[in-house]
Specification:
This protein folds into three domains: 2-40 and 124-198, no CATH class; 56-117, no CATH class; 212-345, L,D-transpeptidase catalytic domain-like (Beta Barrel). Strands 1, 4, 8, 22, 23, 24, 25 and 26 form an eight-stranded mixed beta sheet that branches. Strands 9-20-19-18-27-21 form a six-stranded mixed beta sheet, with no helix packed on it. The longest helix has 15 residues, at 2-16. By secondary structure, the protein is mainly β. Strand 23 and strand 24 (287-291) form a beta hairpin. The protein has helices at residues 2-16, 67-71, 267-270, 311-320, and strands at 51-55, 61-62, 77-78, 83-88, 94-96, 99-105, 108-111, 115-117, 126-127, 136-139, 143-144, 161-162, 167-169, 172-176, 179-185, 188-191, 195-198, 212-217, 222-227, 230-236, 249-252, 255-264, 272-284, 287-291, 307-309, 330-332, 341-345.
Length: 353
């Protein structure tokens, strides 16, 4: 299957007509057969400065020091039921009598076997070349290709598969028997619901010709950043799910926070407490764009209403958006430095384009 996937990509690269001269982002870089837009400015290593962990189980005791449990000393507190994440003072546990412990706050320790270390996403979006106006998309799932819209994949021992998170050009869309299909190469079709598509949008009339603005397409689960009418960056997001929908409309970022806790939910089933979340960009009350270090489901709804971003994307947007971030932790928009526009909407792809 791996061999077939590689051959498929080489074929798609020819069909898409990848050209290195499309890339003009600082220094010219060659494009691989998997990339038709400029590679994201590579940030080496992890952009997160902290290590995070999820608390496993309900009512977990937190001790003032690791020795207290064995000595019978009462815990300083008991954690609440819910979706609970903490930041760790050290990346390695402290060993006491063969038991590992992590320090989560001053004079607060949790057993290592009551924590699950986070594995933050390494996904990152892409910069888009000037004058590039094609629709493109990420594959959300590993997908077997079909020779035509509405046609089942060819049954064979080693089927052609486009890997998840692959970046493809969408040349054409059709609807067959009430199901949408997208052509991503000559004779290569995939179901529309396997993709998260970036569709260049028209600038809202409230946004100035040279202003920066962000489009969040809830239908596609994609985010696009613009300067005036030019699309310059795109990525995958996770918005609110059916229980906690993301608000729609045209807004401005009213505040930016470098790092802060997030909490909410009613009752044990919905309660969440997430420590030290980096790079918040609030655009309407408590709705915002921010890092999600606790999941890697970008391209699918998976939040309590905010717009979740992979860490590298959140940092890029935090630095690109207005108001300009101060050295402090909190920065509000002002009349002299108004926040970047954020347009949140639902727009499905039109057929036949």
């Amino acid at each position: 299957m791996v061999r077939r996937a590689v051959f498929l990509w080489l074929g798609l690269g020819i069909f898409f007509g990848f050209q290195a001269e499309l890339c003009r982002a600082g220094t010219e870089e060659d494009l691989t057969e998997k990339q038709f837009v400029c590679p994201f400015p590579e940030r080496t290593g992890d952009v997160l400065s902290l290590t995070y962990a999820q608390i496993l189980g309900d009512a977990v005791p937190v001790y003032g020091q690791p020795q207290d449990e064995r000595a019978g000393v009462a815990p300083v507190r008991i954690t609440r039921t819910g979706f609970m994440w903490v930041s760790l003072s050290d990346t390695q546990p402290i060993m006491v009598d063969g038991q590992g412990w992590y320090k989560i706050n001053e004079r607060e320790y949790l057993r290592a076997d009551k924590l699950r270390l986070a594995k933050p996403s390494n996904f990152q979006g892409v910069l888009v070349p000037r004058d590039f106006d094609k629709k493109f998309a990420w594959m959300i799932f590993h997908t077997r290709v079909s020779p035509g819209p509405g046609v089942p994949p060819v049954e064979e021992e080693d089927p052609a598969v486009v890997p998840a998170r692959s970046l493809v050009i969408v040349h054409e869309t059709r609807e067959v028997e009430q199901r949408k299909w997208c052509r991503i190469g000559t004779g290569v079709w995939v179901p529309y619901n396997r993709l998260a598509m970036v569709i260049p949008a028209l600038r809202p009339q409230e946004v100035g010709e040279s202003e920066r603005w962000i489009e969040v397409n809830l239908t596609e689960q994609t985010l696009s950043a613009y300067e005036g009418d030019r699309l310059i960056f795109a990525t995958l997001v996770s918005s609110g799910d059916e229980r906690f929908p993301t608000i729609k409309g045209l807004f401005r970022i009213w505040a930016k926070v470098r790092i802060g806790k997030m909490s909410g939910g009613e009752g044990d089933a919905d309660r969440y407490y997430v420590e030290d979340v980096p790079w918040h960009m609030y655009f309407h009350q408590s709705y915002g764009l921010h890092t999600s270090y606790w999941h890697d489901f970008f391209g699918l709804p998976n939040s309590h209403g905010c717009v979740n971003l992979a860490p590298k994307d959140a940092l890029w947007l935090f630095e690109w958006t207005r108001p300009k971030a101060s050295r402090g932790n909190w920065q509000e928009a002002t009349k002299g430095d108004p926040g970047t526009w954020v347009w949140v909407h639902e727009t499905p792809v039109a057929m036949g384009e």
